[in-house]
Amino acid sequence: MLRREVETGQLSHAYLFCGTRGTGKTTAAKILAKAVNCRSPRNGNPCNECDLCRGIDEGSILDVLEIDAASNNGVDNVREIREEVQYTPAVARYRVYIIDEVHMLSPGAFNALLKTLEEPPEHVIFILATTERHKIPATILSRCQCFEFVRIPAGEIVARLQQVARAEGFELEARAAELIARLSDGALRNALSLLEQCAALGNSVTQGMVMEIAGLSGREHLFEVSAAVAAKDGAQVLRAARELAASSQDLAQVTVELLTHFRDLLLCKTLPSPESMLDAPPDEHALLHARAQDMTAGDILSAIGALQQALDAMMRSTHRQVLLELALLGLTTPALDTTPAGLLARLERLERKMEQTVPPAPPAARAQAPVPPAAQPQQPVPQPRQQEEDAPPWEVLPQEAGRTPAPAQGAPERVPPAEQPSAKGQQPAQGAPAFWGDLLAQVEPSVAGFLSSAGAVMQGDVLVLTPGSKFAARMLQKESVRAEIAQKLSRVAGRPCSVAVGESPGAQAPQENPLFEQLATKIEALQQEEK
Asked: Is the pTM here over 0.90, yes or no?
């Protein structure tokens, strides 16, 4: 687009180049300044041979001025620009002002610059460059042509590094170029800077040389750490962390490498063909796929979150090895991992154990024929007794040995289940009702999980449930859960029914289940954290 504007002469008075560091914003601004002033441009590109092109490269053309807004961000600096733009160029066709890091200007300087951008002279072009577009006022953005500079792909960086190596007369190994491209994070300037440091050590740049300059350790240590995390081996992960600290110069860079390693594992875990997105060398792809099968997605996410927290803390602490060891140890000891991702991973593992231990629901039996509402026998719903005013309405207190408690005042006398009359002389069903399987299939899976282990007796139109665990008792205390069970029960039974909680003949005695207890504790903790 810029080449087309130069060819046609339809230039804008202000451009804004945005993007991450090291992607060529300032370089592109200088090329554009040469292109608009070149005496013999070629297809919109500068010839780099005329006196203006060479003068701009050397910095001797005063009509092209580069300003660093980080150190010239006051109102007075912008006022000087406003006074200078009134003068025509000395030797060039346009006066070009390149303002780098323009987001560093003060609010007053932005206001002073706005007036010039609103009514600029025809011989002036402003080229603004910034890494933080969100800090530019909207009034400035609306008067500029904005161009986004994205991260450069690793393949293009490798090709450029090889080209530079050939031009400079030294050898560059392919694996070394790939490692430099991966460490540069899409910034060609960082890649060239690292290549320059390596080239100063000899005429051949190897992968080991790059790792030494960058402060990295061998790739095998990354797989040792992930293997210890997958096996939940705290001793092994501490030994691997010690080896990383001993073989590396910068633990922060090692932590970044571990983050990239676990990111690759997450891609292998979630995507069918992630090879094009992996940062690891091609010969490690098979190892990554094999390691990803040994870990759950929750464990990998927990590792990424813990390492990111450790990396943030390393920027403010000198005990980097301790922070890395604590982060890795927390990944092997779930009780020490308090991050949200760690809690989710623990719940995921707990759910898998529950699926293996909870018995499957009985096969669905054929539902009873529905009874028309008009022909339904009306039976009183047994009311729970209350001994204290603050007792919850759902609690049915057990009878004390040798004594039958008196009914509450104003409430009908409770008849024992064995003596309770039913409509048309029918006796209550013994054990679970015939439509118990249909009821389990109708309710939510989370409800069916604990309901399948509860005792059940149908007494007329009332389903009396005996919790099989403390977790089931807690869930049945909720009015919404009992209402859902009653609604689905009425649907499968073909008549209005209600639900009561308590002891009844034929119901199983509550049994303790540690897995249910752990799940209940975690759910309550998460609910408290959300509040």
From this structure: no
